[in-house]
Amino acid sequence: MTIESFFAMGGYAFYVWTAYGICGVVLVINVLMPLRQRLSFLQELARKQQRQQL
Amino acid sequence: MYAFFAIVRRDLRLALRKRAEIINPLLFFVLVITLFPLGVGAKPMLLQAIAPGIIWVSALLAAMLSLDSLFRSDFDDGALEQLVLSPQPLSVLVLGKILAHWLVTGLPLVIIAPLLAILLGLSAKTISILLITLLLGTPVLSLIGAIGVALTVGLRRGGMILSLLVLPLYVPVLIFAANAVEMAQLGLPVMAQINMLAAMLVLACVLAPWPTAAALKMSMS
Amino acid sequence: MKFIPDPIGKFFHRMASPPHFYALAGQMIPWLTGIFLVLLGYGLFAGLYLAPTDYQQGDSYRIIYIHVPSAWMSLFIYIVMALAGAIGLIWRIKLAEIMAISSASVGASFTFIALVTGSLWGKPMWGTWWVWDARLTSELILLFLYLGVMGLYNAIDDKRTASKAVAILALVGVVNIPIIHYSVEWWNTLHQGPTVTKMDKPSIHISMLIPLLTMAVAFKFYYVIAVLQRARLELLQRERTSAWVKKLVMEQSK
What we know:
By secondary structure, chain A is an all-alpha fold.
């Protein structure tokens, strides 16, 4: 099997790769969103604490 | 048991004083059904074919719209708090409230439905089946809906979220009831569907008051 | 508690304390991610490359390796969510409440993936993007149930109350899911006939089954990672005023 035929998916490339792509994007977003939100929340808390100390 | 009937009597008397709460869902029901022929065209064959679905979907929406009045006024004037604190089991009281609510909002739908069914061209035998499905199905809608209202009664804008909570749970009733009417139109036996609806009614009567009571306690705290 | 050996009881007690959970979850996530990536890599390689082409559906069937595990996860997570909600409701364990609501968005994502991939699989098989097939329809209703849970949680300001509401709703949903599923299946056989059974696989070859199961296990790991990630955020937001969060912020800003 060549690389091209692998990516062609027997003519179903669009359906197969779109499905896998959407799945990947959704799953990645689901982990990264809370991670980023948590980090920014921690920063916000840190800023608040510094202000209180001043 | 005495408390149950006391609640039913009290709620019925209150509802008779505020007739708009009875009339509005009924008017909505009639209006939605009138809109369908205007929307899809007045072809008798087509209307007859989709009549079971139209009537049941409209009944579903009307039942959902009427739900808000189930606990609203009692929540606003504090009577609900009294109920929650009363020594009687809350689930029994809740069942009484639901029964009273169904009598003033669900039963009128059942009574007016034959008239609308005639407008959509259903035969007399089909109408009798439609009545049975409505009699068995609309109480289930009230019972399931009560859980949703109890969860959202404390919210300022609970209306939109209520439909999201309640409508997916209405799906089985819609499927069996609309299908029974459809099968009756074709002259096929409908006992299976009727039995399913009856089973759902029994199940809802037994199970639904518990989460409703729990949700009310939660909303009060 | 007598039936549970002391060390296990202690373990759960420690797990239920927010700072411990927060730290432990943070330590576990890299390991879990490692295992997940290995499983995912093998599953994708075996599913997309090693597994033979289906003689009926060609290569389009390869969507099965994400579609079916997602559909399994969508139901599994709902049940876990209801269980966690029930535990939170009965024993008032804060962490169970957080686990329940953190599961909702992950479950909704898997339901969404199952729907989209089912539609993308359906297009070449049925010729249309959407068929009112029993499985897709129940999946759609499941998505609404998830959205209801998330909507209710966001609508209630007090998060402890919101958790209780969500737990009650999830339990009601769990009782209803079999009824909904059964009724949709029944409705489908009446209206459609057995034309859409193409997706059913009466006998699946072992070379196709292994990647499928690998992906299913990988998704389970993903769920744990995602739910821990979200639970940490939830926990931090709820406990923002507590001493341990303040200490944590102090240590981090140094």
